[in-house]
UniProtKB/TrEMBL annotation:
Coiled coil: none
Gene3D superfamilies linked: Biosynthetic Protein domain, EreA-like (biosynthetic domain), EreA-like, domain 2
Xref: CDD domains: Ere-like
PANTHER family (UniProt xref): ESTERASE, PUTATIVE (AFU_ORTHOLOGUE AFUA_1G05850)-RELATED
One GO biological process term: response to antibiotic
Protein name: Erythromycin esterase family protein
InterPro entries referenced in this protein's UniProt entry, alphabetically: Emycin_Estase, Hydrolase/PRTase-associated, UCP036794_erythomycin
């Protein structure tokens, strides 16, 4: 970490800028500032903190009431999130009787990111809200990520079989290329990235054929009447970009990160096109994805992210990003990739960090900050360490979890929750 500030005058200046957050009604200034944006990006400082999820859900409900929000898109896999989407929209092919039953589809580690009580409660609220609206007005729940290479291929095959598509034989041939790797992404990545034995040509050709077939049936207008076609195209996009991701991941460097975040923006654009030119969206992802990379040291490493790309594509006035942070508490995480999930202690923020400055300024209360003309950024340090916790966490090595950030350039608003608690994972058979 390049720099942490310990500046008492800055703390005093922050006190004149902060807003107290004591109940959901206090979110009103953020809702008012964000409701006109076409894309509202809501972050989290970890994937395992209950208050990040519940506050994000509360903000989303209020944005739905005041804006033409047509879908929520999250840092999750397309196939599993689409099962939950079918439930909350009550689509014809939905087979789940509850959100929890639909969430059995989250069967890949870390399942708790989406198979948790906080998301379950929001999904049940969203279904109840949707059932009061016409089918065309119902709000969706989609996944933007690309880790589901094999699951997406299986979904494509199933769709082509159900529709009697002439592309079925081509798809079976394309996906046969992956069979020797037994759904082992690392093995495929090593073979494709280091040995040059890639399946890239096959999946790219299939994606192009599916797109051509869709245009022949009416383009995105045909999607407006059926999400099955949309899902097939998004699964094909996942297959193509996931192949690229795993091929680049073994080489190291920023390229695989950039492939992933560019994919998420590409998927977001597909969803916005599908829902129409007047559609608005809410994005739920980690701060490292939704906060503008150009305001962090990520830019120095040649990395881009969703927050930067969306601002560049839709212009800053058409986007609004909200970062989150906490001073101390608990978090749900694993000690290593694939390790059993556990409740871990989040130690007090490091002295001079962004979270420490807010703890001092707010004297232990939850806070809101708006980085707009009405709420000057004069008191905000140009560069300050800002904590980020992933699905893998070791509280003993905290210094490496802080990202040097120009906070007011990285986000449009910030929600500080002084003490937080771990997510509540659902007791699903698929949860590990």
């Amino acid at each position: 970490m390049q720099r942490l500030l310990q500046d008492a005058p800055t703390v005093e200046q922050l006190r004149s800028r902060i807003l107290r957050y004591r109940n959901p009604e206090d979110l009103r200034p953020i809702v008012q500032a964000a409701r006109r944006a076409r894309v509202v990006l809501l972050g989290e400082a970890s994937h395992g903190t209950s208050e990040f999820y519940t506050t994000r859900a509360e903000l989303t409900k209020r944005l739905i009431a005041e804006s033409d929000i047509r879908f929520i898109a999250v840092e999750g896999d397309w196939p599993s999130c689409f099962e939950l989407n079918k439930y909350v929209k009550d689509l014809e092919d939905n087979e789940a009787n509850s959100a929890r039953e639909a969430m059995e589809a989250f069967n890949r580690w870390p399942s708790w990111m989406w198979a948790n009580r906080e998301v379950e409660e929001f999904a049940e609220w969203l279904r109840a809200y949707n059932l009061q609206r016409s089918t065309r007005e119902r709000i969706g729940f989609y996944g933007l990520d690309l880790y589901s290479l094999w699951e997406s291929m299986q979904q494509i095959i199933g769709y082509l079989q159900r529709t009697g598509s002439p592309l079925l034989e081509q798809a079976l041939h394309a996906f046969a290329c992956f069979e020797p790797y037994g759904e082992d992404s690392q093995s495929y990545g090593i073979s494709a990235g280091l040995l040059g034995e890639s399946c890239e040509e096959e999946v790219i050709r299939l994606l192009q054929e599916i797109r051509t077939s869709d245009r022949g049936s009416g383009g995105h207008q045909s999607h407006r009447g059926g999400e099955a076609e949309l899902s097939a195209e998004l699964n094909a996009l996942v297959a193509a970009d996931a192949e690229h991701y795993y091929r680049t991941m073994v080489r190291g460097g920023p390229e695989s990160w950039n492939v992933r975040d560019r994919h998420m923006v590409h998927a977001l654009k597909k969803l916005l096109d599908f829902h129409g030119s007047d559609a608005h969206a809410v994005i739920w992802e980690h701060n490292t994805h939704i906060g503008d990379a150009r305001a962090t040291d990520m830019a120095e490493d040649g990395m881009v992210n969703v927050g930067q790309l969306v601002r560049e594509q839709y212009l800053k006035h058409d986007t609004f990003s909200v970062g989150f942070g906490t001073h101390h508490g608990e978090v749900l995480a694993g000690s290593a990739w694939g390790a059993p999930v556990e409740v871990m202690t989040v130690p007090p923020a490091m002295k001079g960090s962004w979270e420490d400055l807010l703890a001092q300024a707010g004297e232990g209360e939850d806070l809101l900050l708006l980085f707009t003309e009405e709420h000057s950024r004069e008191a905000i340090p140009e560069l300050v360490g800002h904590r980020a916790i992933g699905v893998v966490y070791d509280p003993r090595h905290e210094r490496g979890n802080y990202v040097p950030s120009d906070i007011a350039a990285r986000y449009d608003a910030f929600i500080y929750l002084h003490e937080t608690h771990a997510l509540h994972p659902l007791p699903l058979e698929s949860l590990v």
